[in-house]
Design goal:
The chain has 140 residues and is mostly helical. It has one domain. It contains 6 helices and 5 strands, in the order αββββαβαααα. 22% of the residues are buried.
């Protein structure tokens, strides 16, 4: 009986997989960026908790690709504000204006109207960028 070589092929990862992995690294970065000595503060209610128990809240919904990975659009929020209070948007808007200036809401809302398609190479680059940014946070 003749043996045939089994061809080993790597499973091709879908664009959805790359998007989720980018989300994961981006979220890790945002929550650690906003933490001081491992403790993050919710930008909308002021609750404090270890950064890994908080969430990466988006002012403009993640469904808008053009703003999904915009660092101005994302900040640390507690589960209560992000999930149960729908992002606590009034307080979130006040925080964004205080942090980035009065034009930020218009800029983000205008940007969300643009169409942005992200391919696997760009997702890979973003993952590497946010891994590096996390390492840089560890150095400070």
């Amino acid at each position: 009986m003749k043996r045939t070589a089994i061809k080993k092929t790597a499973k091709k990862l879908s664009i959805g997989w790359w998007k989720r992995d980018t989300d994961r690294w981006f979220s890790l970065y945002i929550r650690q960026r906003d933490a001081v000595d491992g403790i993050a503060t919710c930008v909308t209610c002021g609750a404090k908790a270890p950064w890994h128990k908080m969430q990466n809240g988006h002012y403009v919904s993640r469904s808008h690709t053009a703003t999904r990975f915009d660092e101005r659009n994302c900040s640390t929020q507690c589960v209560s504000c992000n999930m149960f209070k729908g992002g606590n948007m009034d307080e979130y808007a006040l925080y964004l204006i205080k942090t980035y200036g009065k034009n930020v809401l218009n800029e983000l809302n205008k940007l969300k109207q643009t169409i942005r398609k992200i391919g696997i190479p760009e997702y890979k680059k973003m993952i590497e960028t946010y891994k590096e940014k996390i390492l840089d946070l560890d150095k400070t």
